[in-house]
Records
---
Amino acid sequence: MTASAGSYNFREIEAKWQAYWLADKTFRTPNPGEPGFDAARPKFYVLDMFPYPSGVGLHVGHPLGYIATDIYARYKRMRGFNVLHPMGYDAFGLPAEQYAVEHGVPPRETTRRNIDNMRAQMQRLGLGYDWDREIATTDAGYYRWTQWIFLQLYNSWYDPAADAARPISELVHKLEQEHLVVNFDGEPVAVSSPGLQEWYGLPPGTQRWSELTVEQRRAVLDGQRLAYLDEVPVNWCPALGTVLANEEVTNEGRSERGNHPVFRRPMRQWMLRITRYADRLERDLDLVDWPEPIKLMQRNWIGRSEGAEVDFAVADRDEVIRVYTTRPDTLFGATYMVLAPEHDLVEALTSDAQRQTVRKYVEIARNRSDLERTVETKEKTGVFTGAYAINPVNGERIPIWVADYVLMGYGTGAIMAVPAHDTRDFEFATRFHLPIVQVVQPPAGQDWRGYTGEGVAVNSGEFNGLTTPEFKKRIIAWLEEQGLGTGRVNYKLRDWLFSRQRYWGEPFPIVHDAATGEVFPLHEDELPVLLPQIEDFRPRASDDPDALPEPPLGRAEQWVKVRGYVDETGSVRTLLPDEVPPPGETRSSAGGQGGRVVREFRRELNTMPQWAGSCWYYLRFIDPHDDNALVDTALEHYWMVSLKADGTPHAGGVDLYVGGAEHAVLHLLYARFWHKVLFDLGCVSTPEPFGRLFNQGYIQAHAYQDARGIYVDVRDVQEVQKGAATVYVRKSTGEPLTRGLGKMGKSLKNAISPDEICRDYGTDTLRAYEMYMGPLEASKPWSTRDIIGMSRFLNAVWRRFVAEDGALKVTDDPPSEEVRRLLHKTIRRVTHDLEGLRFNTAIAALIELTNALRADRMAREVADAFLRLLSPIAPHLAEELWQRLLGPAWRRSIALESWPEYDEALALDPEVEIPVQINGKVRSRVRLPAGDAGDQDKLRSAALADAKIIEELDGMSVKKVICVPGRMVNVVASV
RNA sequence: GCCGAAGUGGCGGAAUCGGCAGACGCGCGGGUUUCAAAAACCCGUCCACGCAAGUGGGUGAGGGUUCGAGUCCCUCCUUCGGCACCA
């Protein structure tokens, strides 16, 4: 297609203005203190979820959110805000690496190329970012600070007394001062009266810090650090050669990326103690303006539940099994217990008679993947241990079973089974013929068997007759009195598995003592730890589930070896080959005092996961080139802190964050976690990173399948009219195809490139079309056929301004009253619609105005305001017409001009038409002056005086007249 | 199974608060212009009956609240998204 006689030359105009914006730095946003900064303007931070520069190229679905934020940022700038609107690249991680593997080029190289390509694509879309703030998570100047944040996590603990993260040195101090002692589990616990322990003694089972060995101290601290190494069951994906986070594994037990099988294996990995923040992450959702469904998804993921821990004594043995239950009110109905196969007590409790059976069962259960466990949920399995427990409320002996429907990772890994009122226990008890005792009376008409709702207690001794919530309170109090249990809150959230056996990620700022294996953080002056260049960066993939991970960084032999010493903060500083350490002390918090000794270390070989870099990028945009801090405190405060209308601080910094809902529980949860840690440590000013979140919908597209169900490329599909019906056939062969609707992308072979659309119709047309398709939050189908409508609209705008000979059609005469009224109505509509991100209706309003201007020579007053309204949506066209409109007086981009104001008085119709209904059906209309339409009495008399209404009401009696000022009249009448 | 979102013409969608259902665009039908075509412009376009004025019906299905329901409440159906043995 070529530009036809009826179209303006969008190609020339768009290229001209894109070049101008770059050269002029039109969208550069000065920080406070920089030249051009205007302190009188309020700030507004608009952020996109930055892309992975994956290299397969964008399709028209990708820029949907970017176009929306671009329009909004331009609008806010014109409204007088200092707008921060940056863009960058989340360039570490699997997609970039896999692309590099497929094309046999180092990831560093492909990433650079992909970024260049993506930047060019975004610039062709006319997106007005401040390119001076561009960042990539793969730049050493960026990941230096990702590593720095990791050091803060490593060197911090969560202080329950402060309900916040604190430097680990404070924990050491508290232990040294004996405000805290260490309990049997290695947990620091508070001492009620420090200093008086000489008289009262330590709490039972606790030890003083001074009594611990260096190894024990180290274990205590490692047990509190927010970043720690642990041997945990992880999701091991041999095909990818790496472990994955729970969030990266599908519920079929396969990798989110690549759909490879995933196995659970215990491995020593880096973990982040996000569980300590479960409560705050859940609670602070109340502070943010996010879509409710997204908040709910986070709440479900965190999975807070309230209940109790109860101790069951094992019959004839000196053992106790602790269980967690959300229904302590059903204790009297507990007729057996179940331990998870991995539970510590399984081996000890099993009777000799049952030993073979139990061992076999545990062995099988351990090797079952998540996939197998899920598929086999239909039939519950389990074996009896031969041991019995005592139900603490009624003294009954109940059998202890082992079954894999109980998970080790949740609660205590053991449950009391109440088959009468729990679906799973009911299934299990039915299968294995275990007793089922009713303890809850459901509402009338419902069967008690398997009833899990609330009701009234029965068969529960002295508690009979209590309602479920009341019973819960009473029984928890009773258990606490008896020392048998406590009320307890539990979360489904697990600690975050933070290491990957990949090349293309941030190296950890961690070294291991080459002789002892002891772990040390590097001193922050040692950052960045540069990712070494290696020949073979491929992960070791395997089909064998028992294969062991082999981090590619292990191949960088020179890089791995570090010579250095431990300094007085416990951090490692490196030395050059012949360098000697400066004089001073070595002193780690766990002990080990002494002079500085040169040691050999080996670097940590794992790298950080994809999510690390995206956890804090919104902070770096504020101050992207700072070498002294991850973000300057004053600048962070300026861009992140905003006040509500009543003057109180808003919860979070970014004023508008737009992205897809697919990040509801991954990126958005991780980023909130890191932000809260940084908040606790005084690095940021707000409790939440993103004050307002908006989820854009997907662009869907028709996808076509042949008879075998194979997808056929959309470009090979032809639409054929067969009588009344439309059928779809393959162009090349003519075979019939079936049509479906799905997310646009490579797999459905239905992707459409924005470059193609820009070439044929222009960037402004593409922008306007994507915004016009429907509400931003909705998913809606792409239709190339419909684009012509936006193309016609923008051409019509051009023709309103420019005559065939190129002369401007604008006059200095004032517009007619009607046109001026319509203009002010349009300004009002567009302003409100853009403010509410309702771009589709804003464009409709502009089309209506354009259509109404048809016969007029355009008045300058109208032209001026119209171009300002149009400019965020179709910036190239608006810039060009703006420059022509101002002529020699033109000085700068329309993006820097102000937003037009509307005048309510000028927008007001002098006369309005009011529908008059009889019994809810419109029977007539009356015209009356605008002032009278707001007056109930005048409305009423006008309606009742209308000839048509009088005629219709003949023979009826009027019961009531309802007058809605300015809207309508309804006469209620009967025969 | 549980949780969430959404169902409006041939299609995408519009309808701040419960107040004229279908704005705006696509498509389609008719016309102007043209040697012709494209583009552009004008008229029409929810369905049924009617030449028309008009009358009746209509927002996934059924019920309810109300002077009045696309909008609120209850039950059900369909589609999409999330979670999935979390005790």
---
Amino acid sequence: MPEMPEVEQVRKTLAPHIQGKKIENVEVYLDRLVKHPTVEGFISGLIGKTIEKIGRKGKYLVLHTAANQKLIVHLRMTGALIAQKSELEAPPYAKIKFTLSEGMTLWFTDIRTFGTLYLVTDNDVFIDGYETLGPEPLSEEFTAEYLAPLAKKAKKPVKTFILDQKIIAGLGNIYADECLALSKILPYRHANTLTDEEIVELCKAINIVIAQGIKNKGTTFRDYKDGEGNKGSNQEHLLVYSRGGKPCKTCGETLSTMKIGGRGSVFCAKCQK
DNA sequence: CTTCGTTCCTGGAAGC
DNA sequence: TGCTTCCAGGAACGAA
């Protein structure tokens, strides 16, 4: 489940293999993954272009293919971008093939096929979700002063609040649970009940958890792999996610599970207030 | 306006 | 053992 640290790791591992290479051919095996423009326009718009740079915004990867053109990719749950030598056979669940120069091929693979790709030229389309992203953890704009007034207006569980990409870009279910565990805040508490001190702690925890995720090259739970097909190691350092029923690493209490906003959530009812 | 529930999809695990 | 059912979850969408 790629969240910000996983997408960042994909960006890093992909860059040396695809940057500066020319797109010689594009084959789309599942049309509905291409959200803009048409599949034909997507293919013809990319062939002949060079991948100048690969960036990231929240959980979106942004491949700059010309001064006025970007290929925007969201991996959703099980999407992956894998760069490998062209002579190697297609990886499992291959959905789009980008044949690059210098004998390299970039594959978009996806088991559950929720991934989305947009080819944007001169900002000719408004991508809801991409344009409305809030600040990222570890950025200058992401501060308690930014978060506090928004939290005070939000009458919903704090977990749902921090998962909102318009509020914070990049958190997903795993890191949201981890951030709340580290800041010792119960996930079901409504955001507008948090004190200023708690918001400061939450901000700190979000930065720490995301920085640790990046340092550990992402969390591989089921399907996540980076641009070279390797797994991350952050799953070895999780406080609560997927540990429901097991002892809290801090106090030994059995960790609780609960559905919050339709998401499986794990927390320590003793440590978190 | 905000908030909540449903939907998309497949594979793996759990249940009978 | 083998079938069926449930669950995983990012974010758009419609309903309340």
